[in-house]
Design goal:
The protein is mainly alpha-helical and about 190 residues long. About 65% of the residues lie in helices and about 5% in strands. The protein has nine helices and two strands; from the N terminus they run αααααββαααα. Strands 1-2 form a two-stranded antiparallel sheet.
Length: about 190
């Protein structure tokens, strides 16, 4: 059991996500990011299976065969593409749905922060893209969401943080304008 180490890792991660969300123009989301990790359902398995270099959910999966903490987490945090699935009336299957841009932006910030926390001083701007590409063909994610996060991670890897955040901020602003226009039209 490593409750203190787990608490510190989660808290450092949240602080890093908040910094990145501020750069992306979504500070409120950054402030609320991953609060469910402090809930007992997520916190205690995280402390028990704490690894320090990757998610403790992997340890719980190895030990139990599944991760209760992850199932709790993905069902409460909209920045995870796994949250965005629903029953399709036509195909009669659970399928991915397109994520709203503001949550893709938070997912982008989350991936950078995770790379920074787990890789420490060895972190490079290419790490989030490399991590994403390793499992890209196995993900059940809406194609439009996949294209958008991949595009942003590629900008980060090839052009750096400033260019990536400028791209993300512009997309978030455009999405806000579109949502306001839609509400006004009602």
């Amino acid at each position: 059991m490593h409750p203190f180490r787990h608490f510190m890792t989660v808290t450092r991660h949240r602080h890093a996500v908040f910094r990145h969300c501020c750069k992306a123009g979504i500070p409120w989301q950054g402030l609320r990011h991953d609060l469910s990790k402090y809930a007992p359902t997520e916190f205690w398995p995280g402390a028990r299976y704490y690894l320090g270099t990757r998610s403790p959910n992997e340890g719980e999966r190895r030990a139990v065969g599944y991760s209760v903490a992850w199932m709790h987490h993905k069902g409460r945090n909209r920045h995870h593409f796994e949250y965005w699935t629903d029953y399709n009336l036509e195909t009669r299957r659970v399928e991915p749905v397109e994520m709203p841009v503001r949550y893709v932006a938070e997912m982008f910030c989350d991936r950078i922060a995770a790379g920074e926390i787990y890789n420490g001083a060895a972190y490079k701007h290419t790490d989030p893209l490399a991590y994403y590409e390793r499992a890209r063909d196995r993900r059940v994610i809406h194609p439009a969401t996949d294209r958008l996060i991949y595009e942003w991670l590629t900008v980060l890897a090839e052009q750096g943080e400033d260019a990536a955040y400028a791209t993300v901020r512009e997309a978030v602003k455009a999405d806000r304008r579109a949502r306001r226009a839609k509400r006004s039209a009602r």
